[in-house]
């Protein structure tokens, strides 16, 4: 038998000896996906009379998560970091769920899942019924949070939503958003979210819905069960210290260069530098997940979105980029022009979507309106297609991060 | 994601987690904790983009690609002083005990001595049975680089495992 064949057989025999609790891997994988989803936002830049920068996509593996699923043997096993001989008791996903349940008023619980995401933090999810209707509840604790949330531009928020950010003594803040799952309120699922962030980077994020699931289920009650005051009390509770103390140490001791984690400021600055002559933007004092950048040339506002994404587009972009033009450096470019994917009638959307050979995705998209829920303000989007293409394919994007 | 999406993801993940884990154990040359992390990260990314991925032809193949890329990306972040994992495989499970411990240890050790990218090539080509081109695509490398690594990795494994491989397989 040729060596390769022998090797193949040997690999299969060896691989078969590895067994694991796949169920807890699946749960932890989904939890990790939810954490990743929270971290990724889109940059929306409105050109011409209004440039609104909404968020930035792109996140990095900040050292691989040492995950532990909900399966718990009752005793947390010690984990020895590679560079130290100290062992400590690691908290389990089940314990995080139990702590969350303790904070809630009397009721029944179902669909519980909790996961420790390594040094990064922990998540817990459950469905809670205080007797007046089931509610999905999601808790996320993270240790190294850099961008405290700020309230979305009211122009993009759902009607009836309220949002506030209150600074706290000691340098943190409390963000409270009593809003809707969908900004256009296509269904009346309410999404109420309290996020406490501390000066040392801790983030306690509690979310609830008036439905047994975030999306796709009917509403079960007029409002989610926990009042704003109760949300605030829970995220401010000292009980979460136990979780933070119980997280494993970061696996890597070396701090890598910010691989892929590009700040909103950098995205804004880069984009500004690439705008056609005559268009410029001013950044307001607060830059956050959803900052605003405005430009005025008096001809009507044009919402522009930038999606800068270093990790979310591997392999499957092949379908999106079928038939794309390929540049000499290997960048694939595709241009789409047509009716906007959502929004009021008559809204036109132009998109230049690119992916670099290393997986970096830069997509720039613009409307002929200041927002998806606003009437068109002009016949065509502000930036010409050739300028849009030049922005999206510019080499500067690849040099970030 | 909708309920239907979520169910789809759950089914997919439940079906593939085992295979991904085994793959990851080969990539990490036996470090099961690291392998679990890799699988979680991979499933997390699949979850993140599930709506778009579920429509493609081969989500299982895509998951494998993501796994390898995640592994290689993590390798880039490790401090250069760290030795590749797999020094001491964990205590044998029942499955392990039923298998051939000598083969297992020898192969895991040999894999551990390969550079990460060579190991990735070995796993993709000889465990996943991918072609040179498919392997190159997954690793975002050129076909010639993959061929070079294949040749080198096989030579090294042959040197380490030698004729004993055929004896070990029986």
Structure report:
The complex is a heterodimer of chains A (401) and B (170). Chain A is an alpha+beta fold. Chain A has 8 helices and 14 strands. Chain A folds into 2 domains: 25-59 and 256-399, no CATH class; 86-245, no CATH class. Chain A is 20% helix and 25% strand. In chain A, strand 12 and strand 13 (348-355) form a beta hairpin. The relative contact order of chain A is 0.15. Mean pLDDT of chain A is 73; it is low at 40-86, 251-260, 281-297 and 311-315. Chain B is mainly alpha-helical and 170 residues long. Chain B has a single domain (3-169), classed as PhyR, sigma-like (SL) domain (Butyryl-CoA Dehydrogenase, subunit A, domain 3). In chain B, 46% of the residues are buried. At the A-B interface, helix 1, helix 2 and helix 7 of A face helix 1, helix 2, helix 3, helix 4 and helix 5 of B.
What is the compact description of this entry?
In chain A, strands 2-3-4-5-9-8-7-6 form an eight-stranded antiparallel beta sheet, with helices on both faces. A six-stranded antiparallel beta sheet of chain A has the order 1-10-14-13-12-11, with helices on one face. Chain A is built from eight helices and 14 strands.
Mean pLDDT of chain A: 73
Span between termini of chain A = 48 Å
Radius of gyration of chain A: 23 Å
**Mean pLDDT across residues of chain B:** 80
What order do the helices and strands of chain A follow? HHEEHEEEEEEEHHHEHEEEEH
Largest interface: A-B, 63 and 78 residues
Helix content of chain B: over 70%
Write the element-wise H/E pattern of chain B from the N-terminal end onward: HHHHHHHHHH
Q: If you consult CATH, what is the topology of chain B?
A: Butyryl-CoA Dehydrogenase, subunit A, domain 3
Put simply, the count of helices of chain B is 10
Give the class-level CATH name of chain B. Answer: Mainly Alpha
| Low-pLDDT ranges of chain B | 79-92
Poorly predicted spans of chain A: 40-86, 251-260, 281-297, 311-315
Mind describing the biggest β-sheet of chain B?
none
Radius of gyration over C-alpha positions of chain B, nearest whole angstrom: 17 Å
The geometry of chain A reads as globular
Main structural class of chain A: alpha+beta
CATH architecture of chain B: Up-down Bundle
Count structural domains of chain A.
2
């Amino acid at each position: 038998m040729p060596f390769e064949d022998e090797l193949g057989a040997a690999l299969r025999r060896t691989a078969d000896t590895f067994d694991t609790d796949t169920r807890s891997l699946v749960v932890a994988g989904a939890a990790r996906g939810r954490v990743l989803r929270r971290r990724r936002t889109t940059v929306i830049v409105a050109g011409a009379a209004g440039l609104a920068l909404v968020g930035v996509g792109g996140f990095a593996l900040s050292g691989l998560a040492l995950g532990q699923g909900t399966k718990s043997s009752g005793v947390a096993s010690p984990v020895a970091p590679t560079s130290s001989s100290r062992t400590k008791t690691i908290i389990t996903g089940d314990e995080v769920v139990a702590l969350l349940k303790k904070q809630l008023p009397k009721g029944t619980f179902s669909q519980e899942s909790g996961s420790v995401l390594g040094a990064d933090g922990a998540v817990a999810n459950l469905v809670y019924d205080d007797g007046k209707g089931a509610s999905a509840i999601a808790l996320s604790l993270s240790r190294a949070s850099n961008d405290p949330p700020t309230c979305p531009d009211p122009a993009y928020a759902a009607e009836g939503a309220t949002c506030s950010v209150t600074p706290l003594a000691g340098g943190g803040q409390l963000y409270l958003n009593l809003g809707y799952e969908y900004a256009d309120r296509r269904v009346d699922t309410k999404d109420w979210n309290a996020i406490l962030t501390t000066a040392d980077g801790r983030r306690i994020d509690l979310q609830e819905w008036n439905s047994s699931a975030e999306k796709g289920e009917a509403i079960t009650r007029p409002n989610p069960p926990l009042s704003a005051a109760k949300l605030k009390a829970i995220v401010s509770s000292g009980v979460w210290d136990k979780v933070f103390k119980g997280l494993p140490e970061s696996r890597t001791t070396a701090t890598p260069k910010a691989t892929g984690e590009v700040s909103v400021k950098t995205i804004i600055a880069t984009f500004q530098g690439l705008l056609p002559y005559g268009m410029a933007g001013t950044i307001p004092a607060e830059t956050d997940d959803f900052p605003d950048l405005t430009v005025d040339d008096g001809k009507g506002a044009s919402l522009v979105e930038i999606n800068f994404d270093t990790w979310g587009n591997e392999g499957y972009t092949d379908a999106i980029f079928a038939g794309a033009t390929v540049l000499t450096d290997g960048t694939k470019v595709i241009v789409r022009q047509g009716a906007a994917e959502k929004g009021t009638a008559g809204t036109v959307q132009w998109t230049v979507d690119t992916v670099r050979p290393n997986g970096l995705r830069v997509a720039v998209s613009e409307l002929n309106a200041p927002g998806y829920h606003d009437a068109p303000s002009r016949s065509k989007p502000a930036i010409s297609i050739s300028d849009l293409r030049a922005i999206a394919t510019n080499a500067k994007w690849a040099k970030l991060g | 994601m909708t309920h239907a999406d979520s169910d789809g993801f759950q089914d997919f993940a439940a079906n593939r987690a085992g295979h991904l884990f085994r793959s990851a154990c080969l990539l990490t040359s036996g470090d099961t904790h690291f392998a679990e992390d890799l699988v979680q990260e991979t499933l997390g990314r699949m979850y993140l983009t599930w709506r778009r991925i579920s429509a493609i032809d081969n989500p299982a193949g895509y998951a494998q690609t993501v796994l390898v890329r995640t592994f290689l990306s993590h390798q880039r972040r490790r401090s250069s002083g760290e030795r590749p994992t797999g020094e001491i495989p964990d205590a044998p499970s029942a499955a392990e005990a039923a298998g051939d411990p000598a083969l297992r240890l020898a192969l895991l050790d040999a894999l551990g001595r390969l550079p990460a990218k060579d190991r990735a090539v070995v796993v993709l080509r000889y465990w996943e049975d991918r072609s040179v081109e498919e392997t190159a695509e997954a690793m975002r490398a050129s076909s010639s680089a993959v061929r070079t690594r294949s040749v080198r990795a096989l030579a090294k494994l042959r040197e380490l495992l030698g004729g004993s491989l055929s004896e070990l397989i029986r």
